Amino acid sequence: MSSAARALPMPAARLRARWPQFLRRAVGFVLVVAGAVVMLIPFAWLVSTSLKPDDQLFAYPPVWIPRYLNWANYTGAWSYAPFGTYLLNTLEITAFTLVGTLASSSLVAYGFARRQFPGRDLLFGLLLSTLMLPAIVTLIPLFLIFKTLGWINTFLPLIVPSYFASPFYVFLLRQFFLSLPPELEDAAMIDGASTLQVITRIVLPLAKPALASVTIFSVTFHWNDFLGPLIYLNDDEKRTLALGLYAFLGEHTAQWGYLMAGSTLMVLPMAGLFFVAQKYFIQGIVTSGFGGR
Amino acid sequence: MTNRAISRRRALAFGLAGLGGAVLAACGQAAAPTAAPTAAPAKPTEAPKPAGAAPTTAAAAPTAGAGVGGATPAAGATAAPAKPAEAAKPSGAPPTPAPTPTLPPEATGPVGQSGAKTTLTLWHTLGGGPDLKAFRELLTKYTTEHPDVAFKLSFVPGSSETGPYVQKITAAIAGGSPPDIFHMNRPAQFGAAGALYELSDFIRTMPQFDPKDFFPAAWTRNTWLDKVYGVPVIVDSRGYWINKALFKQAGLDPDKPPATWDDLLKVNEALTVKEGSAFKRVGFMPLFGNVQFYSYLYLNGGELLDESYKVQFNSDKGVQVLDWLIKATDAIGGAQIVNTFQQSFSTGANDPFIGGLVASKIDGCWNLATVAQYAPNLEFAVALEPIPPGGHKATMVGGYNWSIARDSKQPRPAFDFLAWFSLPAQSTVFAQASQNMPARKSALDSTYIQKNPNIKFFFDALSYGVPYTTAPWSQVMFDNVNATATQEALYKRKSPKQALDDAAKVVQAEVDKWVKK
Known about the structure:
The complex is a heterodimer.
Chain A lengths: L1 H6 L4 H39 L21 H9 L2 H32 L5 H10 L5 H14 L7 H4 L7 H13 L2 H9 L4 H12 L1 H17 L2 H6 L8 H4 L11 H35 L3
Chain B lengths: L1 H29 L1 H4 L6 H5 L1 H5 L1 H11 L1 H6 L7 H10 L29 E7 L5 H16 L3 E7 L8 H11 L6 E4 L2 H6 L7 H5 L11 H4 L3 E2 L2 E2 L2 E6 L1 E6 H6 L11 H11 L1 E3 L2 E12 L3 H7 L16 H15 L4 H9 L14 E7 L2 H8 L5 E4 L11 E10 L6 H12 L1 H11 L2 E2 L8 H5 L1 H9 L3 E3 L6 H17 L5 H20 L2
Helix pairs in contact in B: 8-20, 23-24
């Protein structure tokens, strides 16, 4: 940059002051770029592999740029299994769970953030402690419950629980609600607003960043969820994308080219979501880490 | 204020609509016919499409290879409409069609037909490859011959050894809603746990089903203390794979493969090339491929357990194996370097043998399919696994078995099908699709075995094969011996004897738990 050239005629003191700053930035920049490259290599490999012809998949040293772009992997992958159906199933589950999560978790979170009632903190602690339970521990009890309800092989076990709030989102939203000035809500109350109105007209609009974070977390989780659909869904036509990808990895055979193409397609919407909403991703992490006053 | 009224209503409607929608959506999935309007269009729009617009599927298929493309969507869409069409056309001509030609093709569909039709639910792990296609064709053959039977297939993803499949099957069994027939990699373990239907009575009443026709290595994987919990369908064996071109390049004769463990060390001397601590090429890595301490123990004439269920792998034979593994690993740089190198290939999507980075390995027969697909021009050979002085030829045998759930409502028809499926006429076709081996000795005469020398090699290997045990302690033994003890010795944290003795204690305790019962 020109700063080096301009630095020459400067007095020595100013030169010393400017260089460290410039260097700091440069070093930081280099580090960040290096980190980004490391993070992107697997994705680049995924995309590159998804476009390789079969005979280049195992080439050594690895080939990064395929001999030709083998788009047949994409068309082949798409027709290998009914991915249109899988996509619709996944969208359906993701959409309904999102609605449920936002509606229920924000209500519960508001209760924990603002309502005074005996045993509130104990209850909240209890709620948080459920986060420590590994999913595998509750797998069979849950399965038995849903079986008794006759919900096996339907989307219900995947959707309905999100209408009863999830601890992580409740925690995240509660922390955010606590950071809002209660005076706003008091003012609305004085103007005659009901609690529900305070929530829908004052709190939730102010909590958009937190709600966006919840949206992102919920969507990515359900989009990628594997265990739930695996356990509760039996019919082939009810499978989700995450399950569907496994069609490429059979007991005895593996279609690597198709698998990479399918994986790329499945990652794309999430990558897009991240680019559109990365601000909230980061905000969400900050909120969950340092919320409260 | 009007605002207020609307907002309350809106908030309520928001929640209710969500809830109601969710319930509707899920019900729509459960019982499509009635609740279809809002959420279920997923299925209805999907299903009719191929029926009306066959050309689109046809247009999409050729790229993938018509066979594969056509086989998989059968799950929901393509195959069902396609087959009735087939059945309708030749209805005048077919040789001896089943009485109701429309029924058999619906092998996969939910069969709600009235009459005395038996619907067997079946969970498999075949993905969507050529083996699934072969499997479906065989099912159709069976339902054509037995019009009173239909199948409801479900693919359960993941390796059968661990992970998703085991989670799913465990939940289903514990929840009391298992399928009738399912793929079972550990019949003895699940049988001992009471999850599987015991087949001895069926076998006694079916004289044409002769357990002696199965290779013992395949059959014993399905038994537990004289009880039978599964039917082997296809099995796999291992061998020593050589990249012929690399051998020639290094001045070795690929037609005279190394026959002893010492020869393997010479292969490494001739072929391993390093750059710093990184390999440019490796001659032979003793634990790369599908090979563990077990394999070398049997090659060395040892055994894991004796007749009285006493642990034997910590004998002199076992110590010799670890001594040799250490020697062979140290010769190419030691455990740290070798493991780091091996881990960089942990995914099968990057096979270094195919890539020419590893010149030889001990691996399974199914690699024939991988090579055929991804490296059809690879010059390779398969040979006996090298044998140390005082040892004898051996190879580890795994396999693919079907079991019947203890809670199955129709175990007899399920077994009838399995018995039929295990016959060479069927199992050979199925094995061929994935380049594995049929489990029956009588399959020897099939053209699949006779025509291809490599297949013949792996089939013959079954006669001296040693089964991977499926006993209830199999996982504990595998982890403690092949992973913990072996690595501790390779990293020299313990002496070979010490590592094996420690593992023996753990394994013996686990074995005693089950044998005393």
